Amino acid sequence: MPWLSALKDTARAGLTIERAAPEPLLAVRSTAGVAIVMALMLTFGSPALAVSSAFGAFAAGLVSFQRSWRPRPVLALGVAVGLAASTFLGYLAAYSHVLFLVLLAVWTLLAGMAWAVGPVSGLVATQTVAVMLITVTLPTSVAGAAEHAGLIAVGGLVQALLIVVFPIRPWGRQRDALADALAAEADYARRLRHDPVAHFDPQPLMEARSAAALTPRQARNRPRQLGGPRGLAERLRPVLAALADPVVGAPPEGPERDRVRDLLGAAATVLDAVARSVRRGGPVRLPPEALDVLRVPESGPMLTGAARRSAYRLIALLGDAVEGSDEPVRQTRRATDTPPADRRPEPYRHLLRPTVPRLIPLAVRAVRREARWSSPIGRHAVRLSAVACVGYVLGTALPWGHGYWAPMASVMIMRPDFAQTYSRGVARFVGTVVGVLAGAAITALLHPDPYVCAALAVICVGLLYLFTGTGYIVASACIGGYVVFLLGVVGEGWSQTVQARVALTLLGGLLAMAAYALFPVWETRRLRDRLAEWLRANGEYTLAVLTAHADPAGRSPRHVREALLDARAARREWEDTAERAQKEPVRHRGLSRSAERAAESALATMGRVTMLMEAHLPEPDAPPSPGAAAFAATLRELLPDAVEALRERRPLDWTPLRLRAAAWAAEEGDTGVTVRGAELLTDALDELAAALSPGPGGRNRAARRAG
């Protein structure tokens, strides 16, 4: 899109206030941590020490609200250590502007590279830079520097202790992730009743898998209710799709289709009940009507063939999901037969999450992978370092004082992609103006003493925690008021704050935006690479499933499972990249928007067809399929060249695969699920080739096929 449209869209996104469910108990606990350390320091120390300790408690409390599956105390302690280290090093270098500038350049470069580890690590690193810039103005000696750094660490330690002493809904995030996955399966089942080829968003399943990764200590304390339903949700999805599909399942119309709709509705009801049980830790409440549908009828419409096998598997998996909730099963109105009490689901091995010491080498390897010029993370780190240094020099040279506000605004705004950087820049400036003006007005009217300023600062922190998730503009307004009151604690008047704070925040925002415009990393240019990776991952998933059909005795469920996860991750990477690319003011010269949509539809169909074939994997004692082996061999031969052709903008040719599918259908009579799946798979790959073929004709044909 043009630059003007892109700027309008990002500005609108930055000024949007989202509706988010507040977490008042968590907000109260984190606010209490800030209040405790400030009260202690004001009583037994000095206002300067109160400000230092408040920064540590504030940052530790803020990071503990981020989406992470690690224990909250670990995050709080990690923030405390990082803030203390950055503060002490900043103090040591503060006597020389040149030395501090060198330290700032190196530290911000490392902070930018921390995004390679994950968003929470990137946010923690950003907080360390911000605190380094703020607190170096407070102490006057090395001993004072050590004292302030220690107090910042104490602030984080207090937050960690509060989390341990006053736990609020333990395992709540893991419960929510698993319940969301089950609810997504229920919604998918309902949509399949009306649209047999409905799209399923795998993000809830990916979140549930991330939440299920535990350290050995966590695994010993995890509730049994969180042990099995995730694996069952993963296995339910292909069964639901196979049952509803009009090609490999029941006919599109007739009594069998009515029976399928009833089964899908009952499955949705059961999955919703299990999701509520997991989320709230209560019993599973099942309506008798759903249980009646899930019994094999003695008369009436009966399923046949592949649909019948899918129905039996669906009923068995739903029974395991109810039993795996580890809660008593209760009927809502009348008693019906329930599964035997002595039946228990098979044990599920937990996914291993590395402990903190083991995480260090993994983080180092992640940073090394991104430490290259072509990496968006690497370029973000260089851009962040340059902007922070320029902002510090300009802020120091200007006569307003508080020169650190300009680089701090830049550091807090900048993200590795265009849309977030620009939207946060607008939100930061507008929110800061609102927060600073509100704080200045209150200060001018009340003339509060340091204790009242501290109380007002705590109130701003509480509002920030309470409205976390509503938007960066709200957070910026709360932070603006917090800084005004915090500086009032150490005796700085509001009249010294407003002008400098607003002007330097604007300067920092403009520097961040200008840096991205002059030194961009456009996601649009990576679209073909993402498509190629998705094609490769889909191909590996298809090969794993076909190999299981070709050699049932030697099949490896783990191989199929890992290939599915890789395909799912590749699709998510493509969707994220395409979403960010839509907001950028550039165009891809080799991939139009219509071709992009058609290619996405073709690869999504390829993954769905493979999932249908996975739903009908043969038993280990089933005879091998020579046709599946030959089709897999042909695909394995064509796939690497097709991936490179997609990257290099060469035409794709799937003729050998189409001929192999036709020969397989002729040999086996075109009646098996796998044979029909191979034909559908070939059609999807032909659509991909048409979408990416040079010239408008091929792209238009693919767009019409994609609808």
TrEMBL record:
Pfam families noted in UniProt: FUSC-like, FUSC_2
UniProt keyword Membrane present: yes
Residues covered by region (Disordered): 325-348, 575-597
Any single GO CC term annotated in Swiss-Prot or TrEMBL for this entry: plasma membrane
Superkingdom field: Bacteria
Domain Integral membrane bound transporter: 392-514
Signal peptide: none
Predominant cellular place of this UniProt entry's protein: membrane
Domain called Integral membrane protein YccS N-terminal: residue spans: 81-190
Annotated transmembrane regions: 32-62, 74-92, 98-117, 149-168, 381-405, 425-446, 502-522
Membrane topology qualifier: Multi-pass membrane protein
Alphabetically ordered keywords of this record: Cell membrane, Membrane, Transmembrane, Transmembrane helix
Biased composition (Basic and acidic residues): 327-348, 575-587
Localization of this protein: Cell membrane
NAD listed as a keyword: no
Stretches assigned to coiled coil: none
Family: Belongs to the YccS/YhfK family.
Descriptive protein name: FUSC family protein
Native species: Streptomyces mobaraensis
Lineage: Bacteria, Bacillati, Actinomycetota, Actinomycetes, Kitasatosporales
